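REVIEWER CHECKLIST
Item 1: Sequence provided? yes
Item 2: Single chain? yes
Item 3: Sequence as submitted:
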Amino acid sequence: MQDSHLYEYAVIRVVPRVEREEFLNIGIILFCKRAKFIKVLYHLNDAKIGALSDDFDIEQLHCNITALEKIVKGGKDGGPIGAMDIPERFRWLTAIRSSAIQTSRPHTGLSQDLEKTIQRLFEELVL
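Item 4: Structure as written out by the authors:
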């Protein structure tokens, strides 16, 4: 029997007009300290985002989500935040902020297969 891993995840949201507090779930970040695992999955639906705000800068959103992905992967491409260890990167990415890209509060769970878990969460909460 496989060991279960305690993991944390947060839903990534795009908030085209912060003052209206309307958002669209666009991704998942899943982190497991013991397994040294962090991964992000996202899907940008430009039409749905545009429906919330017709003057939202979709191109900038694509740049920002790419930067977020580089931070998750770590290393030089992720800049100073990408150089942090995995738990610090997850905490930085899930810190409360008032910007166009936000995350839910972190949630926890147990998983025997982290790859399957992030895929399931992505399908349930984003797609």
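Item 5: Key structural point noted by reviewer: DSSP finds five helices and five strands in the chain.
Item 6: Recommendation: ____
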